[in-house]
Design a protein that fits this description.
Elements: H1 3-9, H2 50-63, E1 67-71, H3 74-82, E2 90-94, H4 99-109, E3 115-119, H5 124-128, E4 135-141, H6 153-162, E5 166-170, H7 175-178, E6 188-191, E7 206-210, H8 213-226, H9 232-242, H10 245-263, E8 269-273, H11 283-289, E9 296-301, H12 305-314, E10 319-320, E11 330-332, H13 344-350, E12 356-360, H14 366-377
Parallel strand pairs: 2-3, 2-4, 4-5, 5-6, 10-11
Antiparallel strand pairs: 1-7, 6-7, 8-9, 9-12, 11-12
Length: 378
């Protein structure tokens, strides 16, 4: 089946008891067992639930994996994957990384005894120098947050396998509609399902997809033991959003490309970061490994914090808010929002300067969005 069909049908057969076409919300904590000698497929909702299983099956199908697991948040999904490591293991993480992942690595896993190195994973030569004998995992984002740098996933996967490590790719910014890291050689894919997969800014969730049976076993054990699972209503809402993922992503991208091209012509914008533009340093790589460019556009304004503040507060359709990936357009200021956990020196080292603004382009009319940006720039 093709992507659009899988999004609607994978794991979502009509309910065998009632014939309901839409997967029911199994709002129950526990399940009847008919014998002490043999328990059924479901025992307790922390361990498994039919609504959650439908979502996990659908996500695995869309990413081309064999196993899907969902969590109460993207951070919970990240923590579950990182728990595959043990004290003394080494992880290489992208230098240009979501602030929440950096916080987990520095404040939770480094004190736990995990050795962390940050490398320019979009620069293969620099990345190769970061390996150690104890390297067990590579963690990358592509595109990165918020500068939208592109990592050569296939090349990194080949190098990772040469060192007998696992490659994890955070695929949140593109969704499986525009990029499938497992097909490029990654071992594990992680998502904040809060973003494009659910797509309506009404749930918080995370997911992990893999074809690595050993990784699945370890992450599944952690999911059940730690219990950071999504509620069944959140799973149902995510399934509902998933059905329109392909349509939404096409509209998101069309709007983002239109606005990115226009923003490049604006004198008060000194730089536009968007992989769909030929001016992007890794545009050719993005075209090769992705089927689309996504809907996050980051811009540098001509000015500093005062100009950024005026711009953000004058916007009317672009709402000043955390997150991304919903049908509505949002504007984020990384130094005070997504990357506030980093020190100013760390942000500057990554290229996150005080004049940087991240736009999550929604699916409103593109001309209305252009007018909103124009009046704020003026």
């Amino acid at each position: 089946m093709k992507f659009e069909t899988l999004a609607i049908r994978a794991g979502q057969d009509p309910d065998p008891t009632t014939g309901a076409v839409i997967t029911p919300v199994y709002q129950t904590s526990t399940f009847l067992q008919t014998s002490l000698d043999k328990f059924g497929a479901y025992e307790y909702t922390r361990s498994g639930n039919p609504t959650r299983a439908a979502l996990e099956t659908a996500l695995a199908a869309l990413e081309g994996g064999t196993h899907g697991l969902t969590f109460a948040s993207g951070s919970a999904a990240t923590a579950a994957v990182l728990h595959l490591l043990k004290p003394g293991d080494h992880i290489i993480a992208g230098r240009d990384l979501y602030g929440g992942t950096y916080r987990l690595l520095e404040s939770v896993y480094r004190p736990y005894g995990i050795d962390v190195t940050y490398a320019d994973t979009y620069d293969l030569a620099a990345f190769q120098t970061a390996f150690k004998a104890t390297t067990r995992m590579i963690w990358i984002e592509s595109p990165t947050n918020p500068l939208l740098r592109i990592c050569d996933i296939a090349a990194i996967a080949a190098e990772t396998k040469r060192h007998n490590a696992r490659l994890v790719v955070d695929n949140t910014f593109l969704s499986p509609y525009f990029q499938r890291p497992l097909a490029l050689g990654a071992d594990i894919v992680m998502h904040s399902t809060t973003k494009y997969i659910a797509g309506h800014s009404d749930i918080v969730g995370g997911a992990v997809i893999t074809a690595d049976a050993d990784a699945y076993t370890g992450i599944k054990f952690y999911q059940n033991a730690a219990g950071a699972v999504p509620g069944v209503w959140d799973c149902w809402l995510t399934l509902r959003g998933l059905k329109t993922l392909a349509i939404r992503m096409r509209e998101h991208e069309a709007n983002a490309l239109f606005l990115a091209q226009w923003l490049e012509t604006q004198p008060k914008v000194t730089r536009v970061y968007y992989p769909g533009l030929p001016s992007h340093a890794q545009h050719a790589l993005a075209k090769r490994q992705q089927t689309g460019f996504g809907a996050v556009v980051t811009i540098a304004l001509d000015g500093q914090y005062a100009e950024v503040k005026r711009f953000c507060e004058k916007l009317k359709l672009f709402l000043l808010a955390e997150s991304l990936g919903g049908v509505e357009s949002l504007v984020c200021y990384p130094p005070k929002m997504s990357h506030a956990v980093l020190s100013e020196a760390e942000r500057r080292a990554q290229g996150i300067l005080p004049n940087l603004v991240r736009l999550s382009v929604g699916i409103e009319n593109k001309l209305d969005l252009q007018d909103d940006l124009a009046q704020a720039l003026a």
